[in-house]
Amino acid sequence: MRLLLGLSRAIDALTEAIGKLTVWLVLLVALLSAGNAIMRYGFSYSSNAYLEAQWYLFSLIFLLGGAYALKHNAHVRIDLVSGRFSKRTQAWIDVVGTVLFLLPMAVGVIYLSWPWAMNSFLGKEMSPDVGGLPRWPIKLALPLGFALLTLQGISELIKRIAYLTGHLQLVEEEREVVE
Where is the Tripartite ATP-independent periplasmic transporters DctQ component domain (predicted)? Predict the structure, then answer.
């Protein structure tokens, strides 16, 4: 179990680092959106590259931030129901939900999106719009984001199993794990 908990800590550290970088994308997309609006309405200048960059960044925030949200328990849950159960039962709900729903869905998205993303990359796919950006980088972000979510799901699964087997304690306020 010690080895698995070490793996969990490494995954958590990776997720935390990527999550903290992703937070800066929120500021960047806000500045880009404001700049784009000023240029369009103030100077009658518009660029497809600016518009596409906005939705690329917005997509990256969600794709790269999903694992961070899972780590910090900031995702949508059924706490209205599960909050009435004991911590042990909540941990079991998390284990079952992770094994039956989160991991199969995330792995399925990786499996289905990888060929699509690789075809885009190998073909150096570009936007069909004049002045648009390359499409392959954002398409590669889809399996990457779900790979990070899969890793964090594995980390959360390790922590819940460690809790259920008496190796860790869950902190009640955040349901995060401490040794």
Answer: 31-161
- Residues near 81 by Cβ (< 8 Å), separated by ≥ 6? none
Six token digits for residue 17: 């680092």
Domain boundaries, the chain: 2-178
Question: Could you count the other beta carbons within 10 Å of the beta carbon of residue 117?
Answer: 22
The per-residue pLDDT for range 102-120, each reduced to its tens digit, is 999 999 999 999 999 999 9
Q: How confident is the model at residue 2 (pLDDT cuts 50, 70, 90)?
A: confident
Pairwise CA distance, residues 73 & 80, whole Å? 14
